[in-house]
Structure formats: C-alpha cells, structure tokens
C-alpha cells in the first residue's frame, strides 16, 4: 500500500507534461526565448521539441540573431495603428519542430503542451495538425487575440495552465 502523504505529492498530468516541455526548452540556445513543446496522446508522451536553428546550421549563440522587423495593422476602439514586431528568422519554433518530428497519425486527437502561447504562424500550423488541445503557460501578447480566435473557430481546446511554476532545473532558461 502507498502511504497517503506520498500519493498526495504526485503531480497532476498537466503539471507533469508542462514540466517536460520546460525541460525540453533547456536544450534551446536562443538568447531571446527558450521554448519547449511536447506531444501527448492520452497519457503517453509521443515527442518533445525546442526552438533553435536547423540541425547542422550555426545558431543564434554562434552567429547572432537574424532579426527582422514587420509591421501589422491593428484596430483598437475603431482606431487603426501600426504595430512594429521583431522576430528572429534563424530559429525554428518549438511547435514547428514538434510537427516536423512527429507523425500525423500520432497527432490526431492529441494534446500539445508548450511553454509559451503559440505565435500566429505556429497556431496556423497546429490548427491544421490534427491536435485537439493546446495547453500553454506563458502568454505571447503579440498574437494572443488572433490565436485565441483561430482556436475557437477550429474547435481546439486552448488553455493557459495557471497556476503553474516551472521546475527549478529549468529556471535558468526562463526568458521573459
């Protein structure tokens, strides 16, 4: 018989899989943001990924970030304004790597746990990937409203894991 105190110390599944996503993020060498993602079917872990340069190519820590600036029109309270966004084009996002290295059949009806709310591009890819749920921890404000609306239209469960505290081993890799 398992002592009751031990059983109560057991992590719930959301925390367990998000911890794994944060540990995957420790592999990232991106100086701007470390992101990890995991694919889960039921309670079975099917894949992990993190953000970084393509295999065999110098990464941002070696050759520097490849930052591009883009402008996006946003409408707030009926007023239009241009928002400047910066992004690194050297890095493949964790969600993209997860999709590249897992099979479509495994993704059908599965859940993706990701340390950060997906950007617009990753959200579009996930929306077409067969997943039924996306669980994230940190909000990505630049695309948040658009991504939430897309997930609603697609019928994908999209939720932020709160409260949540990343594992101590991953804390050096948590970039705001």
Automatic annotation (TrEMBL):
Q: Known Gene3D superfamilies for this protein?
A: Cytidine Deaminase, domain 2
Any signal peptide, and if so, which residues? Answer: none
Q: Could you tell me which species this protein originates from? A: Paenibacillus artemisiicola
Q: Which InterPro entries match?
A: APOBEC/CMP_deaminase_Zn-bd (IPR016192), CMP_dCMP_dom (IPR002125), Cytidine_deaminase-like (IPR016193), dCMP_deaminase (IPR016473), dCMP_deaminase-rel (IPR015517), Deoxycytidylate_deaminase_dom (IPR035105)
- Where in this chain does the record put each CMP/dCMP-type deaminase domain? 12-158
Q: Which PROSITE patterns match?
A: CYT_DCMP_DEAMINASES_1, CYT_DCMP_DEAMINASES_2
Classify the source by domain of life.
Bacteria
> What family is reported?
Belongs to the cytidine and deoxycytidylate deaminase family.
- Keywords, ordered alphabetically: Hydrolase, Metal-binding, Zinc
Q: What name does this protein carry?
A: dCMP deaminase family protein
Q: Which cofactors, by name?
A: Zn(2+)
């Amino acid at each position: 018989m398992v002592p009751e105190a031990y059983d109560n110390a057991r992590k719930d599944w959301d925390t367990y899989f998000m911890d794994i996503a944060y540990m995957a993020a420790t592999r990232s060498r991106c100086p701007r943001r470390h992101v990890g993602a995991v694919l889960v079917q039921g309670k079975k872990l099917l894949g992990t990924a993190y953000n970084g340069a393509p295999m065999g190519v110098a990464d941002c820590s070696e050759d520097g970030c490849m930052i591009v600036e883009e402008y996006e029109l946003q409408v707030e309270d009926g007023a239009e304004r241009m928002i400047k966004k910066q992004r690194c084009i050297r890095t493949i996002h964790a969600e993209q790597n997860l999709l590249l290295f897992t099979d479509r059949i495994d993704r059908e009806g599965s859940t993706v746990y990701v340390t950060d709310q997906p950007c617009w591009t990753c959200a579009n890819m996930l929306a077409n990937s067969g997943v039924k749920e996306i669980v994230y921890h940190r909000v990505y404000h630049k695309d948040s409203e658009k991504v939430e609306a897309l997930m609603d239209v697609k019928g994908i469960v999209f939720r932020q894991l709160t409260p949540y505290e990343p594992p101590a081993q991953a804390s050096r890799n948590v970039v705001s």
